[in-house]
Every structure is written in C-alpha cells, then in structure tokens.
C-alpha cells in the first residue's frame, strides 16, 4: 500500500511537471536540483561515522551502553504500565498512532513539496523536501536496525531480551519503533524549521504522544521508543543543519545528532 501511494504521488507530480513545461521550463530543473540535494545529504548522513573522532566514538559508545542498560528495565516498565497506567480508554491513545504512520507522513511531505513547487513558493517546497529527506534517512536507518536486531514485540513474548536476530517478519521487528521514528523525523524538521518555542512544544509534543501510545497500547518496549526517537531526531537535525550550511555556511542548530555504526552520536556547540 505504501509503495503504491508513493508511486501514484510521484507520478502525478512528474506528469504535472511535464504538462507545465511550456509555461515554466524551470520546474524540471528545480526538481533535479532538489533530487541532487536529497542524494548529497543522504550520502553525508550515512557516511558520517567514517570521519568521526575518537571523542565522538566514545560518546556514541556511551549512548549505546545506556540503551543496553535500559533494556534490562523494559519488563519492569511494561509491568508498571499494565498494572498502574493502562487504565485509559484505548481509543484516546489510538488517535495519536496516526501521527507516526509513514504513509500519512509521506503524503504530507510530498503534498507540501508539490504545493511549493507548483505554487512557486520556494520556502514551502524546501520544507516538503526536507520533511521527505528526514523521513527517508531515518526510516532506512530504523528498518536496517529492526531487521538486524529481530526483537519480538511485547504481545508476542513476556521476555524483554527476546532477540532472534536477522528477520524480515514485521512481528519480530520491535527495536526500534517505526512509528516513533516517523513521528520524530517529521516533527523535528517542522519544529526546527519554524524555529520557535511554540513550534517545538507543539511538534515535539505530538511526537511524544505518538511514542507514548506505542508503549501504552503494548506495541513496543520502552527502549524501542527511545531509540526510535533518537533516530528520528538524528535525521531531522541532520537535514536542518545541512540546509542551513547551504544558506549560511554554518549549522542552524547547535545540536548535532548523527548516525554511527553502533548507535547515535550527539554534539552540542557552545558558540
């Protein structure tokens, strides 16, 4: 279903561009330029670990160790939620599940890009492209880790350390949470693009509620959600910073979160 939606939307944009070629010959060039940015930023995202310093590797190892230790408490958190927290109406939390659905997020990103492209509004087009970039980079990272880890979802096992290894079965791809990755990849770009306290409270808040829903409704362990959030934020911040470098020759955000071979790397500039 997801692939069908992507093909249909991309085809509509492509044929609309061809139909308008006589009126505006720049549209195709703009799309080619955006495609180049997509691949260039993607390469820098996935190859970042190659140039990491020893300090960055040490920080990343610390984060990985923290997640490993957190896994040991996943069952306790699950039991606490089952007995003390999970007394709310499931329908209330299910409403936030939609915010992390990849199809909806991609429709939002592609739709925003199309409006900006055909409406000749560069800022809107750029926002749509960055949303799609963040979703793509973060999503591929999450998918790779999920397949390698092969962790069983809470409904399938009471053992929080039940990792079976490489698998293509979605039922055994709990770590990290895909919905949480999507929610934070989407929200990070929007929050940092509009760059205001209200945008951060609103969009990060929505992503947090979507992540909470995955735990409350027994779809994921706590560490699934934590890693998913980190991956989503990493993709969003990378895209924002790369775009800012093109415009201002300096990162917009002091926070830099990048992927590594065994975790996520964090850096914060003091000036």
Could you characterize the architecture of this molecule?
This protein is mostly helical and about 270 residues long. The protein has a single domain (about 25-270), classed as Vanadium-containing Chloroperoxidase, domain 1 (Up-down Bundle), CATH 1.20.144. It contains 10 helices and 2 strands. A two-stranded antiparallel ribbon has the order 1-2. A hairpin with a 2-residue loop joins strand 1 (about 255-260) and strand 2. Helix 7 (about 120-150) runs antiparallel to helix 8 (about 180-195). It is globular. About 35% of the residues are buried. Mean pLDDT is about 80; it is low at about 15-25.
Summarize it.
Helices cover 69% and strands 4% of the residues. It is mainly α.
Order of helices and strands: HHHHHHHHHHEE
User: How would you sum up the global shape?
Assistant: globular
Walk across the major sheet and give the strand order.
1-2
Low-confidence stretches: 17-23
Total separate domains = 1
Structural class comes to mainly alpha
User: How can the largest sheet be summarized?
Assistant: 2 strands, antiparallel
User: What is the overall number of helices?
Assistant: 10
Counting copies of identical and different chains, the oligomeric state is single chain
Range of strand content: under 5%
Overall radius of gyration: 19 Å
The pLDDT mean sits at: 81
Question: What is the CA–CA distance across the termini?
Answer: 46 Å
If classified by CATH, what would the architecture be? Up-down Bundle
Total number of β-strand segments? 2
């Amino acid at each position: 279903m997801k692939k069908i939606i992507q093909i249909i939307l991309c085809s509509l944009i492509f044929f609309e561009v061809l139909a308008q070629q006589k009126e505006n010959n720049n549209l195709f060039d703009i799309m080619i330029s955006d495609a180049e940015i997509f691949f260039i930023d993607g390469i820098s995202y996935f190859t970042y670990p190659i140039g990491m310093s020893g300090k960055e590797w040490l920080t990343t190892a610390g984060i990985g160790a923290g997640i490993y230790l957190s896994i040991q408490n996943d069952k306790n958190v699950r039991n606490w939620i089952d007995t003390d927290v999970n007394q709310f109406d499931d329908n209330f939390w299910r409403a936030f599940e939609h915010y992390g659905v990849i199809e909806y997020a991609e429709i939002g990103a592609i739709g925003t890009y199309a409006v900006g492209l055909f409406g000749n509004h560069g800022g809107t087009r750029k926002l749509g492209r960055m949303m799609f970039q963040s979703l793509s980079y973060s999503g591929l990272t999450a998918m790779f880790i999920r397949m390698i880890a092969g962790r069983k979802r809470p409904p399938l096992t009471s053992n929080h350390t039940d990792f079976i290894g490489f698998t293509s079965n979605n039922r055994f791809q709990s770590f990290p949470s895909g919905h949480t990755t999507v929610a934070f990849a989407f929200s990070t770009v929007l929050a940092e693009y509009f760059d205001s306290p209200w945008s951060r409270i609103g969009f990060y808040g929505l992503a947090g509620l979507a992540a909470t829903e995955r735990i409350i409704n027994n779809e994921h362990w706590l560490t699934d959600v934590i890693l998913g959030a980190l991956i989503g934020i990493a993709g969003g911040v990378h895209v924002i910073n790369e775009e800012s470098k093109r415009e201002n020759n300096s990162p917009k955000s002091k926070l830099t979160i990048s992927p590594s071979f065994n975790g996520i790397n964090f850096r914060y500039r003091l000036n």
